[in-house]
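Recall the central idea of this unit: under ordinary conditions, the amino acid sequence of a chain determines the structure it adopts. In this exercise we apply that idea directly, starting from the sequence alone.
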Amino acid sequence: MALFNYKIRTAEGKIQKGTIEAGSEKMAENSLVEKGFLILSIGQRSSNTSLSLPIKFFSGVSGEEVTMFTRQLSVMIGATLPLVKALKILVKQQDKIAFKVILSDIAEEVDGGSKLSDAMAKHRKVFSNFYIYMIKSGETTGKLEQVLNYLADQKEKNQHIRKKIRSALIYPAFIVVGLVVVAIIVLVFVLPTLLEVVSEGGGEMPMATRILLAVSGFLTAWWWILIILLVLIILGFYLANRNEKIARYFDTIKLRLPIFGNVYEKLILTRFSENFSTLLESGVPVTKSLRIVADLVDNKLYRFLIMKTISEVESGNSISTVFSKNKNIPLILNQVLIIGEETGRLDEVLSKLGAYYEKEVDTSVETLISLIEPIVLIVLGIGVGILVAGVILPMYNIAGSL
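Accordingly, the structure predicted from this sequence is:
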């Protein structure tokens, strides 16, 4: 975004000067013309540092905004509204500046004769390769409304699953954080005072209290070491994750985690099967489809295997060659790929597998939610039990010795 100084003549013939915010000079001109002004001069303001910095900082476009845009555009096209007009209406309705600028640019490109998919391809940080190829297939087949509707449904479905998992994890995270805060308060402030009382009373400290006091002494004296270690661990994970092999190892571990790994794997397989099937059905070549899906699975191990599969397919080998050799890949996926290739109906078989895993994800998420509460209660009980044993028992010993 930038600021533009302008000089215009109003409908009443008055000369006015002012400043307007827009993504480009052309957009600023269009905005003024739409208001009925005659532009006498316009130019970019030289100093706009104070405004451009926060706009750049808050320039992200959320998935929910893209979903809403997709749904609204589908409805408008279904109502036989011209594409350019529909895009311009959505630009006016958009409140977020970053997305407004992107949509304005797309509307201008389409108005200038470009295809919608080509205009969106210039903003790949907002619209994924899968999204763009689906739009392209909709333009080719004349089914843009149906494609947009499908994309909106898929995005809403993914967002629903993410929100469900996130909401299931909020409760245990809140409990664990609360328990850690209480434990730190007890260890740093309560136990040292308790030690003085027990020492003066001549009482004997139980083992639990002695362990907690040792932890308390360490936290009080060396708290800064823990902070440094925490920062180093976070930094180490971040740097390690930028290495392809290490990131692949971490993602493999994620698949083997108890309970969570099962849900994570099914989410990946759902995404792989459904998106691969949809691309093939839309006429996108196998290797091109695999490249797009590789960026969608959100797992370095699967991405590595998919990229190796592309090389195998280009060499004339079966699509299941790489997957069948990896022990981390479920047998059902290998079987589906083999059957799909042999029957020539790979898209149909993958679609059914995607539907199967989608139901499995729902079931697994429900199971996860039902398991979280008792697990949290057990952890909470153990934590509270340790704290109570360490704090209350010495007091009972003193009272009994009196």
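Residues 46-59 have pLDDT under 50 and may be disordered.
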